[in-house]
Design a protein that fits this description.
It is a single chain. This protein has helices at 7-21, 27-34, 38-50, 66-76, 91-109, 122-128, 150-164, 190-199, 217-224, 228-233, 264-267, 283-292, 302-310, and strands spanning 80-84, 114-118, 137-141, 168-169, 204-211, 236-240, 243-246, 272-276, 297-301. The chain is an alpha/beta fold. It has 2 domains: 7-50; 66-310, Rossmann fold (3-Layer(aba) Sandwich), CATH 3.40.50. Strands 1, 2, 3, 4, 5, 6, 7, 8 and 9 form a 9-stranded mixed sheet that branches. Helix 2 (27-34) crosses helix 3. The chain is elongated and about 85 Å long. The two termini are 41 Å apart. 41% of the residues are buried.
């Protein structure tokens, strides 16, 4: 058992720890200043923490699980992950918590003259309601809308357009075309062509993760068309952008040419892709999205992060 530190030793150890941990000074520089070896200086820092002379704690204001975020990013090779510290069983409450952090991330992430793409998912729509001002950027809708009302999806583009003051490129169209050659005539509309051309220039993409079958508007739409069962039999557990994914993160074909929006091939060339989604029922969907390699940043909740780290 180590002898208790004298008061002058406590002061020295505390000074060394603060210089290293709070001021960011290198151990070599501190060691030279106090006339000790680098290893002795490092022991002082460790001892100061063990004795509670200094305290290291997370100072992130938002409810983010810092440890889980770091572990998830490392495990799946992400640039970063934000794991929201909520355990709510309410899908609405979880979506709102994720939306608030997404809004904060967006405000920090958007830069002047960015061209940013958004898929019109429900969590992103909620996030856009918390944003009042961002640097001037062009706002591009990445997919058609899976909701019954087009305005539910295009609200995101309108809100972000007002906040940025940049040009907006909405898609007043459903996400999925009917399985009928005549349906493709819709793609010839000038407003859709304008948006599709702009999609090729985006530098950042924000997409929500749809969890099959209950937490996906696309799955609901396919169910109404009598087409969902075959995709579930193929193992679809998620969609992100215009990609259907199985649990291994593989793309499940079958709807090529019927989606309105960014293709998977184009999405994989976008420098930054942020995937957003979580809550009960989306554990497999988040895992599939991570395994797909489509996203560079993930914003999710504790439930989905822990599930992804257990496998």
């Amino acid at each position: 058992m180590s002898a208790p530190l004298l008061i002058d030793q406590q002061v020295l150890f505390t000074y060394v720890a603060l210089q290293n941990l709070a001021e960011g000074r290198a151990l070599n520089d501190i060691a030279e200043e106090i006339g000790k070896s680098r290893f002795a200086t490092a022991r002082m820092v460790r001892r100061a923490r063990e004795l509670g002379l200094v305290e290291v704690r997370a100072a992130v204001e938002d409810p983010i699980d810092v440890s889980l975020s770091a572990r998830l990013a490392k495990r799946y090779g992400l640039r970063s992950a934000l794991v929201i510290a909520t355990h709510s069983d309410s899908a609405s409450e979880t979506s709102e918590a994720i939306a608030r952090i997404t809004a904060r991330f967006l405000v920090d992430d958007i830069e002047e003259d960015d061209v940013i793409g958004f898929a019109p998912g429900r969590t992103l729509v909620r996030a856009s309601r918390h944003i009042t001002a961002v640097p001037s950027a062009d706002i591009v809708q990445l997919t058609g809308v899976g909701a019954p009302r087009l305005e539910d999806g295009t609200e995101m583009i309108a809100n972000m357009g007002r906040a940025s003051g940049g040009a907006t490129y909405p898609l007043y169209a459903p996400m999925l075309l009917m399985n009928d050659p005549r349906a493709h005539l819709l793609l010839q509309h000038p407003s859709i062509q304008r948006t599709m051309r702009r999609i090729d220039h985006i530098g950042k993409a924000y997409l929500t993760i749809g969890g099959w079958p209950r937490e996906s508007l696309l799955a609901q739409q396919l169910g109404e068309l009598g087409e969902r069962d075959s995709f579930e039999e193929e193992g679809v557990v998620a969609e992100i952008g215009t990609s259907l994914l199985d649990l291994a993160g593989n793309t499940v074909p079958g709807l090529k040419g019927r989606f309105i929006g960014i293709s998977e091939e184009t999405l994989r060339t976008v420098p930054t892709c942020v995937a957003i989604g979580g809550g009960a029922g989306k554990e497999d969907a988040v895992l599939a999205s991570l395994r797909s390699g489509l996203c560079h940043v993930l914003i999710t909740d504790v439930r989905c992060a822990e599930a992804a780290l257990r496998v």
